[in-house]
Amino acid sequence: MTGPFMTAKLSSLERSERRLGIALLMPAFALLGGVVLYPIAALIRMSFSENKLTEPWMAKPWIGFENYWKALGDHRLWEASWHTALYIIVTVPGAVALGLGLALLANQPFKVKWPVRLGLLLPWALPLVFAGLIFRWFFEYQQGLVNNLLIWIGLSPVNWLTQEGPAFFAICVAIIWKTSSFAALVLLAGLQTIPKSLYEAAEVDGASKWNQFREITLPMLKPAIIVALIFRTITAIQTFDIPKAMTDGGPGNATETLAMYIHKTTIDSLDFGYGSTLAVLMFIVSAILTSIYLRHTRRDPSAGRH
Amino acid sequence: MAAVTIRKVRKVFGKVEVIHGVDLTFGDGEFVVLVGPSGCGKSTLLRMIAGLESVTDGEIDIGGVVVNDLAPRDRDIAMVFQDYALYPHKSVYDNMGFGLKMRGASAAEIEERVKEASEVLQIGHLLDRRPGQLSGGQRQRVAMGRAIVRRPKVFLFDEPLSNLDAQLRAEVRIEIKKLHQRFGTSIVYVTHDQVEAMTLADRIAVLRGGHLEQFATPDEIYNKPASKFVAGFMGSPPMSFARLTASGDGKTLSMPSGVVLPARAGLSAGRAYDAGFRPEHVKLGADAFAGAVNTRARVEILEPLGAETLALLSIGGALLTGRFPPQAGVRSGDEVTVSLGAAEMHLFDTETGRALAA
Hints:
The complex is a heterodimer of chains A (306) and B (358). With 306 residues, chain A is mainly alpha-helical. Chain A has a single domain (70-298), classed as MetI-like (MetI-like fold). Chain A has helices spanning 12-47, 66-72, 75-106, 114-125, 128-138, 145-152, 164-191, 196-205, 209-237, 241-246, 258-268, 272-298. Chain A is flat and about 75 Å long. With 358 residues, chain B is of the alpha+beta class. Chain B has a six-stranded mixed sheet, sandwiched between helices. A five-stranded antiparallel sheet of chain B has the order 13-12-11-14-20. Helix content of chain B is 24%, strand content 34%. Chain B has eight helices and 20 strands. Chain B has two domains: 4-233, P-loop containing nucleotide triphosphate hydrolases (Rossmann fold, 3-Layer(aba) Sandwich), CATH 3.40.50; 240-349, CATH 2.40.50.140.
């Protein structure tokens, strides 16, 4: 066995090449350690301590799993988790479905392609919090576009952002609009890998446009749809900016997400210990979903294709 | 089964006219090959018959129905694509049955027809596989199977063998010929390979730059090419040419070196003509056939093929290819005597390239 780790058998040339390789990797390792590993380690350590900036005289005692037991019984945490789950359930498929529509539209043989592509990219390029502010204005009670439309078609205006159900609906609309362009970009890339001759063969075989979509586009697009769903799910767990800008979690805590609750605990209430515990719990959920995604993408995507 | 008529068909892409008014009529059950170099419009013409390209001008008629405005699915044709275009996520069985399913055939009927076609093509053991698990030759068969199960009026083949290696190509070629003999359905087949055209076709349409050069049987194409282009394109190795000048009385032609050949038709005195010789009409030795003109030739290059040797010969300022016997004892650089088949010589107008009436 002469594996790459049998250092004793390496020639001096190979040894010096290996040293150079390690030296070249060091900056990347240092950066990764500084911005990823250290903060995570510090977060985990902090989650086992009591650390309230509002009570500096209490110091920062190590309290073991106390924060975690507290989290298990924290009604507001479960509510925020439930809201986050609802956002995921509604906005992830919603964004992918709308994204699929946009991708199919952008994939049409337009003579001038850039306006369509630009229209696709704009929501994606817009900062989340701006999207939130724009939609807050849309759903505003008095000057809002949506209520104006409702009045115009003869319906009565709705208190969108101050009632539980309508607020949740308005936030979902904003998230779906904002995130569908990302899904559309992933799906458009997938659409463009489907050979045109398959549609021609189906055309000759007698398939209608709808059957071509069902029998060719959808199955061929399945890998891209799964990637879009998983990617969107991972970011949806962290939903923060749009509900923050639109309702700040209100009315009450009715639209508060996990990330918003963590933010409030840590930044507004200055409870760094418990806030860290909540962040660790969210990190674990994200890590599990990300690993599912990685396992999926590591499988040979070309398997079964020709 | 149906006859196909193409009347004055033109095709314009943007500002580029790629087919300049082609007229062709194929009989019912006929095997027609469209052949020509890349860009000659043969694939475009096929795709217009299929309905995958619109017809700019003119008419396409399948079985007595003008199909210009019919969608491909309403034309009752089946097509085998160059890249096979098999549905990668469907099994071989579902690939073959897809067209029937889309046309509302019953499961039992689909099964019967797929089974039948897969037996004919010997792919019965592959029905559960996906296209990705098949070799190139097997995919090719599945693509043909998908066309056969439909029992269409016309089969369209778009360079179906171009992705196969040479040996497989020869096998599948025979397979396709057998299929045509068995089903008797009209076939329109596109290829750039003149061997495929010669071996498969009942009639060959030679296209060049969007024009029809000649539409005739392989025998006629080979022995009576309508133009210098057809003569040079069809045949392996191709016909070789020499520029000759007609004598004052128009009854003989002479090479720059002074070799004189008798002319059959009345020629314009002093005018130049392109004379074409098939390699089999350039033979080693004097008086190899009746009416031969003997001349000296210098052997430039020899290409031994086993059963025969091709010789590139320099004769009086022209380069002609000859078929020599395998063990002729000739080396390149030798001066030899060859017989030119003057009676089999083809004459072409140097300007239009059209063949002179014999």
